[in-house]
Amino acid sequence: LGPHQRWGCEQLQLNPRGGRIVLGANRGSGKSVWAKFGIPLATIALGTHKFPLIIDTKQTEGEASLNQIRDELESGDLAKRWPNLRFVPRSRSTRKHKMDTSREIQLEGGWIVAVGAQARIRGIRRRMADGSMIRPDLAVADDLEDERSARSNFQTNQLEEWVFSSVSGLGTAERLITIMLIGTTLSVDSLMNRALKNRGRFASWTSKRFPIMEAVSDQMTGGRLDRLIWPERYDMNYVRSLLDPKSPNFVGYLTFSREYLLDPRVISEALWTEALLGKAGEYKPIPIDPKTGKPNRRWFKSIVVAVDPSWGTKGDLCGIVVAGLGPD
């Protein structure tokens, strides 16, 4: 398991009833398979939860996860090792005439049901093989947003309201529901970014970001070093390739910042754009003043200085850029 997956498992152990957990992880970190396959099976196998609800952007994506679970249980030895993961025979099934097998699985230890974001889930419940009724006690939401909805403040507000009204209301006083949001930050005001920053109604949620790398202080020089969060999976050559236009892995700085560093930026607020900076090698060398032997400042039409001030106290350095506009 990666550090984000270990942390998520620890939080589920610490908050098995009524927990509110937000986990941000970079693209390609295996979070989706773990969230929609590992967590539901593990919680039922161990008996910590009886009704995990898988929530995805679309219903069809959740159904694909259920098919993966079903295939694994039918072909592997998980059911042999864990009695709770055995299928309930159709003769004992409590929904043999109504059950949609593409959206739900009944096991000896409980139910797994898949739904899409903003689905009508109020009052959802299922009957166990022993006849007892249960409601969802764990909701695992993976990448609830796509790029379009994450950039819409209206859709984000709707999704947030659905989480706090419909999903939070699924539990009962006797068996509180634990909710875990997992995903990447697709925009500054996306639901995941709000939750990870504990904004508004997410103020009391337990949250943590796991970017592909982070800046740490160098005790020898006092500067900053980039440290990989999961060195067993990634190396710095791979990270550099994401920013190398000549590499097939190239994603660009904005995507890298948003989906790998979990630090989305607003393009319209950028002080230095690609159009402003131009391309390297386009400009002529600055003429040298024969009297002083230094670059002739009079050659410039104008000189611009831009300063990126440091507001933090943890090694964040100020940035200063000086640019000159030539006569042509």
Could you describe the 3D structure shown?
- The chain has 328 residues and is an alpha/beta fold.
- 28% of the residues lie in helices and 20% in strands.
- The chain contains ten helices and 13 strands.
- The longest helix has 17 residues, at 59-75.
Quick synopsis:
With 328 residues, the protein is of the alpha/beta class. It has 10 helices and 13 strands. The protein starts with a helix and ends with a strand.
- Percentage of residues in strands: 15-25%
Radius of gyration: 26 Å
The helical percent reads 25-40%
N→C terminal distance: 57 Å
> What is the topology, as strand order, of the major beta sheet?
3-4-2-7-8-1-9
Number of helices: 10
Main beta sheet, described? 7 strands, mixed
Provide the low-confidence segments as ranges. Answer: none
The assigned structural class equals: alpha/beta
Strand/helix succession: HEHEHHEEEEEHHEHEEEHHHEE
Return the average pLDDT rounded to an integer: 83
Labels describing this entry:
328 residues; alpha/beta; seven-stranded mixed β-sheet; two-stranded antiparallel ribbon
What's the layout of helices and strands?
Blueprint: H1 3-14, E1 20-25, H2 31-46, E2 52-56, H3 59-75, H4 78-81, E3 104-107, E4 110-116, E5 126-127, E6 133-134, E7 138-142, H5 147-150, H6 153-167, E8 178-183, H7 191-196, E9 206-210, E10 213-217, E11 224-228, H8 236-241, H9 253-259, H10 274-277, E12 302-308, E13 319-325
Parallel strand pairs: 1-8, 1-9, 2-4, 2-7, 7-8
Antiparallel strand pairs: 3-4, 5-6, 10-11, 12-13
Helix pairs in contact: 2-3
